[in-house]
Design a protein that fits this description.
Helix content is 30%, strand content 16%. It is of the alpha+beta class and 186 residues long.
Length: 186
């Protein structure tokens, strides 16, 4: 049986792979951008990664330019920005499309598995409209820094709105709950 972990992806340095490299880990998949009001979340994402990585947890960053043109650079430029500005050490992947008809198959699978985000996506949508921006409608990814929590067995355990900070107690509790579970036989 094929799972979302089998979906082909490319690392930010161009290596072809899949999330199967992380089988047995708890994953937080985040669509990231370097010129967004939420970009400072990189700092908290890195802190989360460093806090839990020795327990089988990985943050996986997927740059996307889908929202307001807030990730215009190429992969090398994005990688340089992440390491030089936020000292990002968590795995980063090549820029992809996460919303709309051309979305990457990984995000199509994530959205199908978890069509609704926890947090307050409606309030965030209103805030974006107040700034003159046009957010997507559910079930699409709302904006940069939406988070999908993937359990050790490769299933989507939760989805969090972009406005949910990486250190939000609900997100941290969900990560800790997944880390506490033993790897299930396949």
């Amino acid at each position: 049986m094929t799972t979302l972990l089998d979906t082909p992806v490319r690392t930010i340095d161009g290596r072809h792979t899949s999330l199967a490299d992380y089988t047995g880990d708890v994953l937080l998949v985040v669509n990231v951008a370097s010129k967004c009001g939420l970009t400072p979340q990189y700092e908290a994402l890195e802190a989360l990664y460093r806090q839990y990585r020795d327990h089988g947890f990985k943050v996986l960053g997927f740059p996307a330019n889908d929202f307001g043109g807030q990730e215009p650079g190429g992969d090398a430029e994005i990688a340089d920005f992440c390491t030089s500005t936020y000292d990002v050490d968590f795995p980063m992947f090549a820029k992809i499309i996460v919303s709309g008809p051309g979305k990457h198959p990984l995000y199509a699978a994530l959205i199908a598995a978890a069509p609704e985000a926890a947090g307050d996506p409606a309030a965030f949508r209103q805030r974006l409209r107040g700034y003159g921006m046009q957010p997507t409608e559910a079930p699409e990814v709302l904006w940069n820094f939406e988070k999908f929590l993937i359990a050790r067995d490769g299933t989507v355990a939760a989805r969090f709105a972009p406005s949910t900070a990486p250190d939000d107690p609900a997100l941290v509790a969900a990560i800790e709950a997944e880390l506490a579970k033993q790897d299930q036989p396949r």
